[in-house]
Amino acid sequence: MTTLIIARHGNTFNPEDTPTRIGKHTDLPLVEKGEAQGRALGRYLRDHNLLPDVAYSSTLQRTRKMAVLALKEASISLPVYALDIFDEIDYGPDENKCEKDVIARIGKEAITLWNEKAIVPDGWQVDPHKIIMDWQRFAHQITKTNDTITNQIMDIAETVLVVTSNGVARFAPHITEDFDTFLQKFSIKLKPGALGILRFSDQSWHVEDWNIVPVLN
After folding, report:
1. Structural domain count, the chain
2. Rounded Cα–Cα distance for residues 96 and 101 (Å)
3. Per-residue pLDDT tens over the stretch 128-141
4. Are 168 and 198 in contact (CB under 8 A)?
5. Residue-wise burial string across 148-169, b where 16 or more C-beta atoms lie within 10 A, e elsewhere
6. With bands split at pLDDT 50, 70 and 90, how would you rate the model's confidence at 145?
7. Tell me, what DSSP letter sits at residue 121?
8. 100 within domain boundaries
9. Per the domain annotation, does 14 fall within a domain?
10. Residue 106 placed within a domain
């Protein structure tokens, strides 16, 4: 059975900062709380027997650092493979804008549809179909391997960690091929530092849990 752990990076703003929508073109580091959230993720993985066999992140430093901190806290020595398919989305004209300004441009209903159903607001440079296809190809890749001795496709039983951003993570449950059921059970948005757990068994994916927030020390 393959287990896919999808985590959102931790905080990139301090309490005194004004948060903005940071997309793929803004490479902010984690702040102190964000680093604490990375370590909390590692403890959660260790304490719940979810130690990764392989780890991925986006190419953005906030996700790479989150993954590195989590692995170190869990006492796991693994490289973190950075893939641009996990880079945050492009918020277009709303990049680096505060939420008040974003709402003034697109309206509250557009934000609600994005948060509840992953419907992309007007002006954001996002191709949901491509993101979904990227997740589906990745999900297939981590469940199968080619045995070079028998030349047969073999199933893999691994635990895979992906640290990404909220705009991309919300499309991952499409690998279950039943996104509507997912929406009925879970809130689509991952909080900063939160994770979701998906399992592949009986030739299909299912979401075991979503938006789990590890406890900070």
Report:
1. 1
2. 10
3. 999 999 999 999 99
4. no
5. eeeeeeeeeeebbbbbbbbbbb
6. low
7. P
8. no
9. yes
10. no
Tens digit of pLDDT for each residue in 12-66? 999 999 999 999 999 999 999 999 999 999 999 999 999 999 999 999 999 999 9
In this prediction, residue 147 carries a pLDDT of 44
Neighbours of 4 (CB within 10 A): 25
DSSP assignment of 72-112: HHTT----EEE-GGGSPPB-GGGTT-BHHHHHHHH-HHHHH
Structure tokens at 196: 């979701």
Rounded distance, CA 132 to CA 122, Å?
19
Residues present in the chain in total: 217
Q: Which helix (H) or strand (E) holds 197?
A: strand 195-201
d(CA 85, CA 171): 12
Q: Which two tokens stand for residue 121?
A: 């607001």
What residues are paired with 213 via a beta bridge?
Answer: none
What is the span of the domain harbouring residue 143?
Answer: 2-91+125-212
Is 7 among the domain residues? yes
Q: Is there a contact between 205 and 42 (Cβ–Cβ < 8 Å)?
A: no
DSSP alpha helices (H): ranges in the chain? 32-47, 61-73, 99-106, 108-117, 128-141, 166-169, 179-185
Please give the structure tokens belonging to residue 48.
Answer: 């719940």
The pTM (predicted TM-score) of the whole model is: 0.94
Q: Supply the CATH number for residue 132's domain.
A: 3.40.50.1240
Measured in degrees and rounded to the nearest 5, phi and psi for residue 149 equal: -80, -50
